[in-house]
Inverse folding.
């Protein structure tokens, strides 16, 4: 058995797919037309049933449609139709690995071997209808013993249609021959003979029909009888997970952008789930509407990429990350297009440990880190990340370190046995500027805590320098013992030879 998912008024449903759920349902019940053609004279190329009841027809101009009043008009968008077709194919892929993209708005899938999983054809059709509804598509579904009979039944009958094997000709008899893939010349000949339905064509004698219309006429008759048996033409698998939406009028408010962004992320995550995949990288692109060309470019763009520590299928977490970033940015022009892309990876398989300490969920941790970045920023003046995991850099520069994104991999901590006592240097950040009196080249007193402290002992100097070509340093370090009110303290001081100033770097514990 084969099932066909057919989307009536496909261009209209594709245009309404990015709308919010309740707004989409209101528009679906209202007259909607799709316009295309020159900007000075756009014409109707698609419409829905409420618009037909108002008397609107294909080919009417925009001005004629406006005279009807209360009609929602949308511009034809090929990216939106491609996205709707991809959503339909993803819906079918979740039920069968063998699918065919028959035409825009129609997908055929092979139900062979799915009886134990989906049940009888009636049950499978209901599940398909529910899955398409979750993706925002209202579909007609037909199940028959061959692909073409299923497609003709889906196009011709509303709701769900199940044709038992052997009853194809009887059930398809009332359909019009205009639904057959016939040339305009062949349809003119059939209409001239008074043939308007499948039944009339199916009852013609085969030999005279072949003599007048050739093998193509015989093929049309077999289609009308539901006798054509063929294999499905497999659809190419989706290699990219990209969703986009272009506003009719550029928007400036974050609420308008966030609503569309949430919808796009939900759609792309549904695609990931249907392919048993997840993502560890999200890319967001915003196209800005500029009034004039700058530097030879047609427009400005905003790009941002998130490298996630773990693979996820959670659309809400991805939306939160995107929204937190958008709230921190201001744009020089209104936004005319939003696009999101995710890189597919295998979903992570994690098993809990009864004996390990509990840790925060990776998704919640990533949201927390994004909020911290919103407070302290992404990087400081030196280009070092402000939020992440610190790491010592392989350099002799004092105090040099780097900050890397957190990783979900568990760190392996090796135990080290220390056989002798150690001391640690507690560094002051920033270093405390001071003044030092010298006895020759050796420090004699250091101004510390608003007073000059005598140096009881001094060790040094240790001179370090580097990066003479960029961001250089040159310093002279001393370890000194100072007599303070709390007793003898051990400190590290250094002299910056470039700025000619002294600093207290830290205290030894």
């Amino acid at each position: 058995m084969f099932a066909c998912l057919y989307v009536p008024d496909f261009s209209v449903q594709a245009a309404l797919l990015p709308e919010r759920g309740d707004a989409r349902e209101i528009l679906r019940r209202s007259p909607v037309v799709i316009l295309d053609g020159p900007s000075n004279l756009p014409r109707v190329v698609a419409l829905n049933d409420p618009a037909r009841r108002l008397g609107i027809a294909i080919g009417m101009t925009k001005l004629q449609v406006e005279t009807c009043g209360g009609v929602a008009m949308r511009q034809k968008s090929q990216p939106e139709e491609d996205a709707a077709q991809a959503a339909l194919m993803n819906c079918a892929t979740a039920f069968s690995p063998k699918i065919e993209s028959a035409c825009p708005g129609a997908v055929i899938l092979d139900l062979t071997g799915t009886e134990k999983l989906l049940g009888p054809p009636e049950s499978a059709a209901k599940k398909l209808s529910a899955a398409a509804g979750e993706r925002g598509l209202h579909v007609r579904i037909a199940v028959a013993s061959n692909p073409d009979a299923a497609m003709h039944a889906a196009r011709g009958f509303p709701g769900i249609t199940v044709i038992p094997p052997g009853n194809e000709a009887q059930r398809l008899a009332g359909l019009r021959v205009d639904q057959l893939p016939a040339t305009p010349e062949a349809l003119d000949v059939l209409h001239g003979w008074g043939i308007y339905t499948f039944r009339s064509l199916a009852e013609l004698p085969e030999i005279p029909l072949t003599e007048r219309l050739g093998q193509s006429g015989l093929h049309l008759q077999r289609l009308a009888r539901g006798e054509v048996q063929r294999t499905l033409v497999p659809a190419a698998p989706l290699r990219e997970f990209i969703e986009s939406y272009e506003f009719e009028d550029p928007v400036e408010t974050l609420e308008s952008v966030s609503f569309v962004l949430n919808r796009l992320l939900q759609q792309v995550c549904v695609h990931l789930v249907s392919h048993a995949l997840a993502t560890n990288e999200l890319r967001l692109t915003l196209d800005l509407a500029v009034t004039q060309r700058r530097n030879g470019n047609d427009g400005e763009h905003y790009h941002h990429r998130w490298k996630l520590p773990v693979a996820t299928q959670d659309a809400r977490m991805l939306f939160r990350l995107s929204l937190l970033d958008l709230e921190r940015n201001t744009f020089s022009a209104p936004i005319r297009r939003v696009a999101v892309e995710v890189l597919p990876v295998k979903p992570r398989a994690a098993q809990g440990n009864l004996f390990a300490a509990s840790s925060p969920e990776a998704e919640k941790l990533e949201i927390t880190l994004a909020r911290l970045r919103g407070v302290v920023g992404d990087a400081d003046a030196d280009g070092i990340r402000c939020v992440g995991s610190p790491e010592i850099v392989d350099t002799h520069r004092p105090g040099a370190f780097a900050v890397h994104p957190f990783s979900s991999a568990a760190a392996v901590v090796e135990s080290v046995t220390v056989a002798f006592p150690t001391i640690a240097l507690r560094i002051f950040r920033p270093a405390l500027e001071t003044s030092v009196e010298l006895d020759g080249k050796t420090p004699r007193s250091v101004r510390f805590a608003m007073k000059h402290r005598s140096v009881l002992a001094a060790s040094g100097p240790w001179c370090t320098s580097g990066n003479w070509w960029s961001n250089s340093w040159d310093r002279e370090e001393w370890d000194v013992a100072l007599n303070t009110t709390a007793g003898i303290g051990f400190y590290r001081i250094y002299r910056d030879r470039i700025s000619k100033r002294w600093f207290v770097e830290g205290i030894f514990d």
Remarks:
- Residues 425-508 form one domain.
- The first strand starts at residue 2 and ends at 6.
- The two ends are 79 Å apart (CA to CA).
